[in-house]
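Worked example 3. Consider a protein that binds iron/sulfur cluster.
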Amino acid sequence: MPLIKNDRVIDDPWLAVADEAEIPLHGAVLLGVARWQAERTALVLRNAALGVRLDSGHGPEDIVADLDRLALVAIPFPSFSDGRPYSIARLLRERYAFSGELRAVGAVLPDQIPLMRRCGFDSFVVDPAIRVETVFECLGAYDRHHYQAAADGVETIAALRRRAPGKSQTSATAALAAELETRFGNLPAEDLVAQMVVKEFKNRIAYVSSFGTEAAVLLHMVALADPATPVLFLDTGKLFPETLAYRDALVDRLGLSAVRTVTPDQAEIAAADAGHDLCRCNPDLCCTLRKVKPLDRALTGFAAWLNGRKGYHGTTRIDLSAFEVEEDRIKINPLRHWGKAEVGAWFATHHLPRHPLEAKGFLSIGCMPCTDRVAPGEDIRAGRWRGQDKTECGLHNRPTGAV
Amino acid sequence: MYRYDVHDRALVAGRVDEFRGQVRRRLQGELNEDQFRPLRLMNGVYLQLHSYMLRVAIPYGVLASHQLRLLATIAHRYDRGLGHFTTRQNLQFNWIGLEDVPDVLGHLARVDMHAIQTSGNCIRNITTDPFAGVAKDEVEDPRITAELLRQWSTFHPEFLYLPRKFKVAVTGAREDRAAVRWHDIGLRLVRDAAGTIGYEVIAGGGQGRTPVIGATLRSFLPKADLLPYIEAIMRLYNRFGRRDNKYKARIKILLQDVGIEAFARMVEEEWPRVRRPDPHLIAAETARLVEDFALPYRPRKDSPVDTTERDLAFWRWVAANVAPHQSADRAIVTLPLKSIDQGPGDITAEKMETVADLADRYSHAEMRISHHQNIVLPHVRWTELPRLWETLERLGLAEPIAGLAPDIVACPGMDYCALATARSIGIAQDISKRLAALAPPEHIGALRLNISGCINACGHHHAGHIGILGVDKRGEEFYQITIGGSDDYDATLGTLIGPAVPAARVADAIESLVLAYLAHRQGTERFLETYRRLGITPFKEAFHAVDQE
Ligand code: SF4
Ligand code: SF4
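Given these inputs, the predicted complex is written out as structure tokens:
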């Protein structure tokens, strides 16, 4: 019978003495509990290590008084599915502080040894028919993830959770985005917004808005979910006065209570755009200074942000995921499947006010110098940066970790 | 719902690898069936009539749509395109090949699912109210307790080889939708006189061949003492429960042998000596769970006013299948899985995918499985009910029968189960057809019919207002009929109405009982109330009149 102790197969130094057999004068012996109880007085005088086998039907109560005299307690498993020894072992270790060897004998499956170890067993006698390699395979396969404390003193999962996660932040964010896509990628826009704002990113999410012609839809959804959600309003300093007025009207109507106006760094603007013509000679830099950088600053501390990009806006924006990773932050596109019809219907159903410039032919509204009217039938973003190659403001075509 | 983190995932992944090795050793003959049995049961693998069966855990019945989609894929690839929701809020695949099980478990792990402890003599899936967290009559969301217990019981090294299986249910509502008195341990969240929330602990309930209604072990247990208290019960049961006879091994027998008061005293003596988990960790863990189970929207007090004229059929559906919600603008919708051509709880892979889409569209991607074997959408907006109803009508999932007579609970019976002595699915279909011809279900009113294919009582026939048990009489299938069972807080055990009847007469017999009720009911009295008022005599007479024919 191979004996396993400390992850090694060893020779058994103990002599198991049957109940009727004679006890040798010297050497460590392992006796049945009944015999130990019957011959206790004589055995105590014997000058050698003593072990007791706690036969089925006996419990720790039968030996607690003598635990410090015992160097070994063996507990037989009557069958693979008899779980009593697990309780007995834990009691011996945890309640009665037994520190000698605790040996599992009888019907011991190698697969069960990890559990036995957790309960305080530290040596195991397995069936000789079982390959030793299998035993070590089983021991190795068992990791140290346990929900509950036991006699082995291993840290519980609850304790591990309280520690900082060791993973690199970026891969964790990408994995989170992928997971959110699987779980919530099919939610209707309004539910997705609520799920994110109220639950998944509670107090860690913002909506970034330009208060353009369609912004009211997502603003409304955000307000329905939680009107205290931070709304970041990018004021480039070049906006139409109508946009500012529209912003105030919408904020009022929707009851949004945490609108923050995000402005460019005045020193940067003074240095780069002293002639007030940066938007014409270098619009990319202008957008960087007036939009991209201020937004990055404003998003510090937020784990996620909502934005209103839609598939139908232009040819460059069709295949959007609901969740993307950008600058280690999750960017959420609830309206990615929306088209003009859905937007129009939402405005109508909820009686939302339109941007005042829309009636004047502006369908996509940004800064004054870079926004032109759009002819009927033209792409709705055709009026932005008309006559230039530029089609995006730099907020959305940075290198992204789209899922 | 509960969100796995890296640690939960590592635990499940580790067990998938472990079981893969065990299956390999079994297939190579290194493990014999006797050695393999406890290992496979730990992973939900049963040997049944036609093949292996895999029971997938749906912890306390909460299921996300991406998980249901994966279950559909598994049903397609590894089963015959079918799954079966059980009365313990789990899902069974009845045609899985043993060599495929490790792969299936691997797929499940990728969506944070597993089959751990769905079989065997261990603490099984903790069940709860399918309306948990959204029910209007709730003291506290029972899923927080259920998840704490799930973690504590998952691979608890001391309690994996108990004398017998062990079932725990938790409820937090005024109405008992989790049958807590029928469980080995039932926990009911209650308030004490000072308004503090704690548990009423009920123990020793159970069905099977010796049905027992659980008794209250402690009328108020402070929340902080839950885990040591339960651990004490488990330890006493593990040490002293009978192991010599599997029919006397459930904790109910130990409680009967020792006496409930004496057992309660033993627990009182033991639990203060059980090592308590670190209270800071429990508090932190609880806070995490409260967040995980919070509603994904702000509850509202105002319900929308809808003045549109609608079909009578729509209102019938609302009356039967739609329940009030904590948020006044939402509703809880039950999708009965009781179509005439399928067994109760059966669902095809295609239907799983459709329901997953509905959950995305209407219910924040979340569903519940009820112990009555139905699917529940817990977050539906009132304003969307008409559209949802139209879709469900098309799909055959809008039968207005939740809680009514055709909402029959039945075990798989002879069609799948190796232990069965009779069919249960066919009988359920016969009864459904007969009662449908008799009167619309809402005219018959609240009526629970439960059918078990053998004395093991997986169909909970003892707890049915009408219970039907398949028995074998000289090689022929007969059915014993009981009346007056209940799985509410005031649980009662059904009483045998007369001699067993052959399969062909079951529908007649049930019809006679329903007719007797209709003849005697007063006002809006429900079946069980009429029975409790009048006793068994008028029902017995009706039954015997049929029996004599
Ligand atoms: S849109 Fe035009 S004005 Fe506005 S930041 Fe960009 S380039 Fe400058
Ligand atoms: S009651 Fe009997 S027939 Fe039905 S599932 Fe249970 S064991 Fe099988």
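Take a moment to read the result before moving on. The domain at 312-395 of chain B is CATH 3.90.480.20 (Sulfite Reductase Hemoprotein; domain 2). Chain B has a mean pLDDT of 93.
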